[in-house]
């Protein structure tokens, strides 16, 4: 006779992981604030205003996506701090120079006329590209490692607490739970949810609700290898972990272990799922909340973890490929 599941112990670990995830999400939210909101805040330190933005902060300053955003990364910002456009004519430069010092510095430095245009372009492209690649690679590695580690904690807790696989939406031998039919259902649900997600985003934009795409832009690679890592490693890890936590554990296992309505738990998990995506702004939280409830409903109706993992993965993958890879904007 199999041992009785220890649902209270599993619930304690699950809630700890959920709390840790929300804390980490809130801590990283400032990295992906809307640049227009950030521009409205006065600089808190003169040295801070002199430091050029790099990595995620620099990517977030350019709201463009796709090909245009990629070109701006490579070419950089050609604005003159002394021009009328910046409003600094006759004032100190952002690097602490006055006009005379800047003119003297420029007189000593070689100009682009001294070098062939091709060499200048290649130098700019190489330096900027290395910076973006390092930043994006670090972000991808951090996301994959942190969410993979938290997912492993949930799996270990379920195993130690003897939680049955069926309670987590894994019914071995049932093709509608772990077979190709489940994959097919998940794919259909994922495509439908992607379309609904784009429509919700369009409505949020039309209503003037802030929807930040900084996180997605920061994670978007610029190399073929980077795209392979994103689509084959990072996004599956994200989809697997988030569905394991928000749907399999918070809905499936809690409903089985404590006799609570799965629809009530779906509402709770949806709220937690939305709060965990605060980096996307108020509009992002609302849109993500709708997506989370749709995924919870799909889990309750299908009883399959695989269905919602596939659906979640497709929503994320299509967003990256369409917006960041192809540069297509529906709004």
Explain what you see.
The chain has 331 residues and is mostly helical. The chain is 70% helix and 0% strand. 30% of the residues are buried. It has one domain. The model is unreliable at 37-95 and 119-134 (pLDDT under 50). The longest helix is centred in the middle third of the chain and has 44 residues, at 117-160. Helix 1 packs antiparallel against helix 11 (224-258). Residues 227-318 form the CAAX prenyl protease 2/Lysostaphin resistance protein A-like domain. It is an enzyme of class 3 (hydrolase). Its EC number is 3.4.-.-.
Keywords:
single chain; 331 residues; mainly alpha; 14 helices; 70% helix; globular
In brief:
With 331 residues, the protein is an all-alpha fold.
Tell me roughly what share of residues is in helical segments: over 70%
Largest sheet descriptor: none
Q: What structural class do the secondary elements suggest?
A: mainly alpha
> Could you spell the SSE succession in H and E letters?
HHHHHHHHHHHHHH
N-to-C terminal Cα separation, in Å?
58 Å
pLDDT under 50 segments (min length 5)? 37-95, 119-134
Average pLDDT works out at 77
Question: What kind of assembly state do the chains in view correspond to?
Answer: single chain
Q: Proportion of β residues? A: under 5%
Rg measurement, Å? 24 Å
Shape: globular
The tally of helices reads: 14
Number of strands: 0
Give the number of domains. 1
Domain CAAX prenyl protease 2/Lysostaphin resistance protein A-like: 227-318
Region (Disordered): 33-129
EC number: 3.4.-.-
Transmembrane segments: 149-170, 224-241, 248-275, 287-315
């Amino acid at each position: 006779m199999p041992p009785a599941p220890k649902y209270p112990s599993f619930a304690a670990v699950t809630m700890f992981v959920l709390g840790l995830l929300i804390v980490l999400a809130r801590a990283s939210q400032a990295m992906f604030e809307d640049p227009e909101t950030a521009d409205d805040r006065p600089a808190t330190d003169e040295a801070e205003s002199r430091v050029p933005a790099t990595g995620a902060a620099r990517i977030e300053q350019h709201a463009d996506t796709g090909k245009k955003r990629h070109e701006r990364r490579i070419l950089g910002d050609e604005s003159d701090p002394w021009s009328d456009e910046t409003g600094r004519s006759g004032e100190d430069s952002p690097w602490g120079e006055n006009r005379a010092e800047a003119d003297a510095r420029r007189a000593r430095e070689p100009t682009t006329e001294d070098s062939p245009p091709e060499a200048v372009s290649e130098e700019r492209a190489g330096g900027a590209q290395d910076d973006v690649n390092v930043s994006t690679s670090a972000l991808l590695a951090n996301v994959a490692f942190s969410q993979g580690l938290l997912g492993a904690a949930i799996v270990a807790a379920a195993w130690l607490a003897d939680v049955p696989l069926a309670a987590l939406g894994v019914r071995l031998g049932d093709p509608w739970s772990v077979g190709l039919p489940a994959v097919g259902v998940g794919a259909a649900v994922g495509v439908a949810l992607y379309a609904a997600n784009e429509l919700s985003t369009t409505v949020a934009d039309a209503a003037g609700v802030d929807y930040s795409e900084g996180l997605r832009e920061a994670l978007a690679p610029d190399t073929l290898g980077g795209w392979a890592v994103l689509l084959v490693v990072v996004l599956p890890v994200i989809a697997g972990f988030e569905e394991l936590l928000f749907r399999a554990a918070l809905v499936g296992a809690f409903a089985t272990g404590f006799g609570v309505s799965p629809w009530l738990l779906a509402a709770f998990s949806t709220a937690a799922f939305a709060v965990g995506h605060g980096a996307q702004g108020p509009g992002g939280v609302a849109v993500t909340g709708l997506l989370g409830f749709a995924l919870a409903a799909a889990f309750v109706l299908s009883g399959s973890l695989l269905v919602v993992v596939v659906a979640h993965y497709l929503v994320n993958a299509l967003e990256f490929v369409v917006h960041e890879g192809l540069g297509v904007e529906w709004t």
